[in-house]
Specification:
The chain is built from 16 helices and 13 strands. With 395 residues, the chain is an alpha/beta fold. Strand 10, helix 14 and strand 11 form a beta-alpha-beta unit.
Amino acid sequence: MKKAYYPDGMPVIFDLQVEAEILGCDLRWSDKAPPMVVNHPFSEEMNFIEKIPEQGEGRLPIIIDVMKTLKKAIGDDTALFGLVCGPLTLASHLRGTNFYLDLVINPEYATDLLSYTSEVAKAMSTFYIEAGMDIIAVVDPVVSQISPNMFNSYLKNEFSNIFSNIHSQDAFSSFFVCGDATKNLDLMCKSNPNSIFVDENIDMVDAHEILSKYNIILGGNIPLTTTMLFGTQQDNMKYVVDLFDQIGKDNLIIAPGCDMPYDIPFENVVGVVEAVQEPDLIRKSLENYHKKEIDLEIELPNYHKLHKPLIEVFTIDSEVCAACGYMLETAVDVKKKFGDKIDLVEYKWIKLENIHRAKKLNIEHLPCILINGEVKYSSIIPAKDKLYNEIEKYL
């Protein structure tokens, strides 16, 4: 990949389940995506452990070996990222969707669990720094799914301590988040990372303005599916030069919005790199560019004549995106409660027809939950009891 794309920086592994597997979660494996957590050791009871991963456990030996190998091979001119699972996402892996209710009704337990998962993140950071990683990215996609009050109460100090620990080891830090985390960006900045990476749910101009107040670098946010997967090379080039035109090059890293879908065309990534390296030349080559619009005929349900409530969950891909996975899991738990009284369907953004379906429904942010065609929860994972009560209104 180094010889094909010539990236300035590169994550060595993008897998938020490494820690969870060591701590007792079972995984489901996929041919074209990272594994996903399929069970939660603390889902039934508010248990607690104090086990910290060790370098010889799980998949860490091979990960650390690859990091050292890459550092030796390309580390002189490529910034290498070591990605660790953030404390909120790891707590969700261990406790499941019940943790979002814990944040409201079991604050002492939630605080203790987040304190523990933060210690895990610190340990993993140290392993990766010792393996030669230049930047430690704390990847916590579900941060977008909680309110600023929750972030301030539970996470601001935890992230501050994690980033401080990274800086004390002479490494750079980054905060990766998925979904519409706009409401939390200011607080994320106050936890003092060197950079924040966001996905396509966030407006880069607004984000850059917020981050610039703190002199924090913004990374992102080429859309993974609409542009990188389904777009042309010119679409990708245009997105990059448009970002430069809107916010300049200061404190900006051009990157995919998250981990790239497996089947992204090779030439699209090459186009991104060319646009970053030679924006003036690419801008001139795009003078006659016109984006080709694909119009698919999408038939929506007749929401006014449904025989029973219909829950629709729109995700980027619940098998890859943790925030999407936990929003879908909440809906699945509710389906188990109501059984045949309700219908449930997931629409993944990695399918072109679902992108057009979302546009027809005027969906702006992912993941989200609709009931009978109306968006009820957008970039917020609801507590199950709230979703229960909302569905009861339709029965």
